[in-house]
Amino acid sequence: MKRTNYLILLLFIALAVSGCSRKQDKEKSKKVIPVKNIKLISLKVLTGKEEGRFYHPKFSDNGRRIFFTSQNYKGLWYYNIHSGKVTQLSDANGIGYKFAVGKSGEKIYYRLKVRSGYKRKINYLIAGQNVSSKKINILVTSKGRISPPVISGKNTLLYFKEGKLHIIDLTTKTEKSTSDTADLILSLDNKLVKIKHGKLTRINIGNSSAVLYAAKSPVSDDIAYEVKGKGLFVKSSNGRTNQIKNGLQPAWSPDGRMLAYVKEKADGMKITGSKIFIAALPSLKEFNLLAGKNIVASNPAWSPDGKKIVFNSDDGGIILATLNIQ
User: Fold this and answer.
1) If DSSP codes are grouped into helix, strand and coil, which group holds residue 174?
2) DSSP string covering 202-238, please?
3) Is the residue at 232 inside a domain?
């Protein structure tokens, strides 16, 4: 009997040690490995001049399509990664301004401005469009100004009207008052705001300058935001804030280890150059993605696997950069 109890005790100890070891291995696997070096492998121009001039590219979450708009945010198109074909979805004016791509990549969402009546008053709409069928569904109509849509989670769409947050369930296509929305950081009316559990709060950044762009890390509470005339700021979850001078248009990598952004050069009268840089966190070590390349670039966006960046050139070309990240 004593021998049996002794064996059971030994087995319990072995299981406990094994469990601790697995837990430690799991914690180690979660540890973020800092990026040491980033190299450009190749550049591929996805659109031709005969197809038009395109801007503001975005990947679908499945990485199969890249969506973009044209000059003055007119219309929407997409590039099929597998076929290499460019397809137009709409030529409506203004819908490319801060358009949103659904989580499946099969739908896009955008704001429409429609004039009606003999006084030609503007009505605002938020529409969802099926990429394959091109069928359009109107989700929101408003006589008052509303913001472009924001996708939060798998089936939730957000928009703002007169500073108030509205939430649409994309499954039922109805508005709801509460939601399990993912935490978001946004620029709203040139202010830095946070959305958590369906509630909107303003973040104090210590100055009154306009916040033009803002984004939250996909894996932490770190945030990046662009302040008009002052450049880019990165605020870590521990409260420390670092400035990237002349930085614009921040875009987090999917693993949160890198931040892509634009740096412009000017001669005092006009912009003379624009390059894409990548900063490795937490050191903010900077890599010039287009060093030695005669390309004026802007609007970087990451691929879902974090191995590519798509951007537009100043002459309206959509370009895909493949990276070697070490």
Assistant:
1) strand
2) EPP-SS-SPEEEEEE-SSSS-EEEEETTTEEEEE-TT
3) yes
Please tell me the predicted confidence (pLDDT) of residue 250.
97
Torsion sign (Cα): 99, 309, 193, 264: negative
Cα–Cα nearest to 96, from 76, 115, 81 = 76
CATH of the domain at 313: 2.130.10.10
How does residue 21 score in pLDDT terms, banded at 50, 70 and 90? very low
Is 15 among the domain residues? no
Tokens of residue 237, six digits: 């979850």
* Local structure of 263: helix, strand or coil: strand
For residue 72, the enclosing domain spans 33-325
In this prediction, residues 184-194 reach a mean pLDDT of: 89
Contact 217, 252 (CB under 8 A): yes
Count of domains forming the chain: 1
pTM value is 0.87
Q: In residues, how long is the chain?
A: 326
